[in-house]
From TrEMBL:
Residues 717-800 form the Glycoside hydrolase family domain. It comes from Microbacterium mangrovi. It holds the Pfam family DUF4982. InterPro entries: Beta-gal/glucu_dom_sf, DUF4982, Galactose-bd-like_sf, GH, GH2_Domain-Containing, Glyco_hydro2_dom5, Glyco_hydro_2, Glyco_hydro_2_cat. Residues 274-448 form the Glycoside hydrolase family 2 catalytic domain. Residues 165-264 form the Glycoside hydrolase family 2 immunoglobulin-like beta-sandwich domain. Keywords: Glycosidase, Hydrolase. Residues 631-688 form the DUF4982 domain. The keyword Plastid does not apply. This is Glycoside hydrolase. Belongs to the glycosyl hydrolase 2 family. One of its GO terms (biological process) is carbohydrate metabolic process.
């Protein structure tokens, strides 16, 4: 089928009751281009739901008017929606055309019967959000829309599946399955031509086979092709091939389609762990939500690629989609850049977690939503595992065993080439019993206690419960239906299960960032534990303040994060992609960084003590620029894998302290602040080795801009804005309100910082820096030169020009 973008020309508004509209209360439509998040621009409610970042609930209407040619004769026409949040209802020319409850599933609508040739046609989409998620969902048509058209005999959307088997050094068998649809009234026989092309476009294998299709039916044409000396896909070498397919009848080409794929071999067992192309791999994993920070939920391909690139640069080689199917754009980025993926289905099955969540639709829709995810993922070599759920409450019951088996077998029937896991939380699987145990130990665990509250309690209690015979017995069936046992915050079972279940392979599907040194040591010394996925790799909207540090007076209890908090604040990278200290610590633990890293804790208010849960890193940044009096004591953290680290200020040694694995890769010094240069030196075997320096910023800051993005006429550009002194040092103690102005054929899409509690909107051209940085996202609307100018009171303005082909 021919595929064209259907993203332009949309309008949207908050849904209006038709009776109110008749009385004159007309809400105007606003022009938008999709992907579009209808929620991110709405005013937040200080009394709203902190799980959804204080954004309100709502129902939204989208519409688009488009023309249909006079000679349209009813040939197949399909609209493909990659994601609409949520409970999408599609109307074409006023007629109901389809519905999809799940907000994360790709789905199609057969539009042909509703179209009116020679007229202006209208498509309308209704969708909604509210009381249906534990995190920020966004709303609206937040992923791409495509229009597919074809003749009577054609290849449907996602009608090509390519997989590789029997791989060795000399060659690989590539199995290609092509769906052929016949919408005509008589039987048709066509030749199916298949070619495999390498990344240079050279043909490396081909085949032709006839395929006969009955009227109003479809057939599957299979091809078994041999590729000599294949380039194998892995995270380190992400080689991609293309399978090109044509349908030919009587010498005429009826349709063509192609799909990218990779050739790679996956193996997993408890002795060798995970192997990719025969090589052992430990998954250095990051859990990620679907939002793109200040862009909200809108799936912008350039933003998805930037996110994966930044995560890979920070040392990760794998991501887990938490807790819903990942976008096509992000999968394509993982394929190109080399990132392993666990794609996840649902956050709940039959039992709800929030009032109006997907559990209401699960019994009727789960099979179709699993089919949608596998259909989307099949050709992507980055996907190595499917997860059938996250912390599903039924996993400790017989009913959960039945549901899990049904889900796992459904996935296997659709794709036997990948592994099946489930992110099981042992504590949640026995929640009622756990509350009783916690109560016996004096913990506050009444009926209102949530899972995050329990898990934020003493870690040894949680680990003890997770390793108990009760959890062993209750979860045995749920783990037994899987290829890989996914465990959320259950590292106490890693070595225990090596003895109890010698055939069990484990992956830490979700772990505390503060425990990475301990969990990674378990991963390294246990072959049956294949990786660790931290919560989280990239900061996200909603679940506000999950990882925040609070400053409490004596006797004061911790509280939830109030408005204007917007983010979880537990990512290794913040909302705009800045690496936080935890990211550099993790890189050292992974063995990927030799240089020490210096992080300085923000000064605590007088009489208050810093307090944070297991998702909270220390409230520190890598800066020696502080608005404090000289001599004020500051706590300095130095991360290093060396046995010792030395800290010096302006060449004067402050002290030498042990670090390395035995001391959790960390040394903490108290240093009286004075401006200058702070230097940390790794000492290995008694000899000075690598060193790192941070210096104090001096003078009035200057605005600097650096742009990241493709030179393409319709690209999104990411302009990083920083306050730096004349020597290039970030002025972290001198935050400013910055104004962004765009000249040329472009628009400002979002502007904000990594601040987890910002004031104002990401749609404003005026915002404050946070730790001296901010990010502006600019969308081109055509070619030529655009200029991005930034200004702030008391600073010399900055400007950068960006060119693109006309």
């Amino acid at each position: 089928m021919d595929r064209v973008s259907f993203n332009e020309g949309w309008q949207y508004r908050l849904k209006v009751n038709p009776f109110d509209e008749l009385s004159g209360e007309v809400a105007p439509y606003v022009d938008v281009a999709v992907p579009h998040d209808a929620l991110i621009s709405r005013e937040r409610d200080p009394h709203g739901d902190p799980a959804n970042a204080y954004f309100p609930s709502g129902t939204y209407e989208y519409r688009k008017v488009f023309s249909v040619p006079d000679d349209y004769d009813g040939d197949p026409t399909v609209l493909e929606f990659e994601g609409v949040y949520r409970d999408a209802e599609i109307f074409i020319n006023g007629d109901y055309a389809g519905h999809r409850p799940y907000g994360y599933s790709l789905f199609t609508i057969d539009a042909g019967e509703f179209l009116r040739p020679g007229e202006q046609n209208t498509i309308r989409v209704e969708c909604r959000n509210g009381q249906d998620s534990r995190w920020y969902t966004g709303a609206g048509i937040y992923r791409d829309v495509w229009l597919h058209t074809a003749g009577a005999v054609h290849i449907p959307p996602h009608g090509i599946r390519a997989s590789s088997t029997d791989i060795d050094d000399r060659g690989a068998i590539v199995d290609v399955a092509v769906q052929v649809v016949n919408a005509a009234r008589r039987r048709r026989t066509v030749e199916v031509h298949v070619r495999v092309l390498d990344y240079t476009g050279a043909e490396v294998a081909s085949g032709i086979a006839p395929c006969t299709v009955r009227p109003a039916d479809r057939s599957l044409s299979r091809h078994r092709l041999y590729v000599q000396s294949p380039e194998l896909w892995s995270a380190e070498s992400p080689f991609l091939y293309t399978v090109e397919t044509r349908l030919v009848c009587g010498g005429d080409e009826l349709d063509r389609a192609d799909a990218a794929f990779g050739i790679r071999r996956l193996q997993v067992d408890p002795v060798n762990g995970l192997r990719v192309n025969g090589q052992p791999v430990k998954l250095r994993g990051a859990c990620i939500h679907h939002d793109n920070g200040i862009l909200g939920a809108a799936t912008i391909p350039e933003a998805e690629e930037r996110r994966i690139r930044l995560l890979k640069d920070a040392g990760f080689n794998a991501v887990r989609s938490a807790h819903n199917p990942i976008s096509v754009a992000l999968l394509e980025a993982c394929d190109r850049l080399g990132m392993y993926v666990i794609d996840e289905t649902f956050d709940m099955w039959n039992a709800p977690k929030t009032n109006l969540d997907y559990s209401l639709a699960f019994p009727e829709w789960w099979e179709r939503d699993v089919e949608s995810m596998v259909l989307k993922d099949f050709n992507h070599p980055s996907v190595i595992m499917y997860s059938i759920g996250n912390e599903v409450t039924e996993t400790g019951s017989a009913a959960g065993g039945i549901a899990g088996r049904n889900l796992a077998e459904k996935v296997r029937s659709l794709d036997p080439t990948r592994f099946v896991t489930n992110a099981v939380n042992g504590l949640l699987a026995v929640m009622d019993d756990a509350k009783a145990i916690a109560a016996q130990r004096g913990a506050e665990a009444d009926e209102a206690t949530g899972i995050n509250t329990l898990m934020a309690g003493p870690l040894e209690i949680m680990n003890e419960i997770s390793a108990s015979p009760l959890v062993t017995e209750r979860t045995a069936e749920s783990f037994g239906v899987l290829d890989v046992a996914g465990m959320n915050y259950v590292d106490s079972r890693y070595e225990l299960d090596r003895e109890l279940f010698p055939n069990r392979v484990i992956v830490g599907t979700e772990t505390f960032p503060t425990n990475i040194d301990r969990t990674w040591a378990l991963v390294q010394r246990n072959p049956h534990v294949i990786g660790d996925f931290t919560w989280t790799g990239f900061d996200y909207l909603g679940e506000v303040g999950l990882g925040r540090t609070q400053y409490l007076a004596e006797g004061e209890d911790a509280a939830g994060a109030p408005f204007p908090w917007i983010a979880g604040w537990c990512g290794d990278l913040d909302l705009i992609g800045n690496r936080r200290p935890a990211s550099f610590y993790r890189e050292i633990v992974f063995g990927l960084r030799s240089e020490p890293y210096i992080a300085v804790r923000r000064p605590a208010p007088d009489g208050r003590v810093a307090s944070g849960g297991p998702w909270a890193w220390s409230d520190a940044i890598s800066s020696w620029t502080w608005a404090v009096e000289e001599g004020a004591p500051l706590e300095v953290e130095v991360y290093s894998d060396a046995s010792e680290v030395e800290l010096a200020l302006d060449g004067e040694v402050i002290g030498v302290m042990p670090a390395g694995p035995v001391h959790r890769f960390r040394a903490v010094f108290e240093v009286p602040w004075q401006p200058g240069t702070l230097t940390a030196t790794a000492i290995r075997g008694g000899r000075r080795a690598h060193e790192t320096r941070i210096v104090t910023a001096i003078g009035t800051p200057r605005l600097q801009i650096e742009v990241d993005g493709e030179e393409r006429a319709d690209a999104h550009l990411f302009a990083r804005i920083e306050l730096r002194d004349g020597a290039g040092t970030l002025c972290t103690a001198d935050e400013r309100e910055v104004v962004v102005d765009i000249d040329g054929d472009a628009e400002l899409v979002a502007f904000g910082s990594g601040n987890p509690a910002p004031i104002g909107s990401y749609q404003s051209a005026r915002n404050r820096t946070f730790d001296a940085t901010a990010l502006a996202v600019v969308r081109r609307r055509g070619g030529g030169t655009i200029s991005i100018r930034v200004s702030a009171e008391g600073c010399e303005p900055g400007e950068i020009a960006v060119n693109a082909p006309a």
